[in-house]
Every structure is written in C-alpha cells, then in structure tokens.
Amino acid sequence: MPTPARTIYRDSLNFYKNEQRSIITLSAVLALILAVIYLLVGPNAQESQIINDFIINFQKNQIR
C-alpha cells in the first residue's frame, strides 16, 4: 500500500517539531567544539600572513 505524499510531509514536519531542540543543541555544541579546535590548531600570525600573501599573489597571477 503506497504512502501518500501528504502523510510523508506531515510526518516530516512532526519529526522536525519534536526534534528541533535537539537539532539546535547539537548544532551549537558542534559549533563550539569546532571553534575551540580552531583556536588550538588554527594558524598563528606568521602562518596567516603567509596564507594571505599566497592568496594575493595567486589573485595577481590570475588577472594577467
């Protein structure tokens, strides 16, 4: 017996409504974890300058 599209949409909306708090909480926790990892492992000032110089030189070479 096929499931009508209306039922699938209704069930999907109910799932989202019931799990919205969990989805938002999980997203916030993951964003916090990624921010901490970036602070611990991210580039320092010298590495950032090297990356910026590379990008600028790459853009100049692309224009030519």
Would you spell out the secondary-structure blueprint of this structure?
Elements lengths: L4 H37 L3 H19 L1
Keywords: Membrane, Transmembrane, Transmembrane helix
Structural features, described:
With 64 residues, the chain is an all-alpha fold. The protein has one domain (5-63). It has 2 helices and no strands. The chain has helices at residues 5-41, 45-63. The longest helix is centred in the middle third of the chain and has 37 residues, at 5-41. It is elongated, with a radius of gyration of 23 Å. The N and C termini lie far apart (63 Å). The mean pLDDT is 91.
Q: What's the pLDDT, averaged over the residues? A: 91
Shape estimate: elongated
- The succession of helices and strands, N to C, reads HH
- Assembly form of the protein: single chain
User: What is the count of helical runs?
Assistant: 2
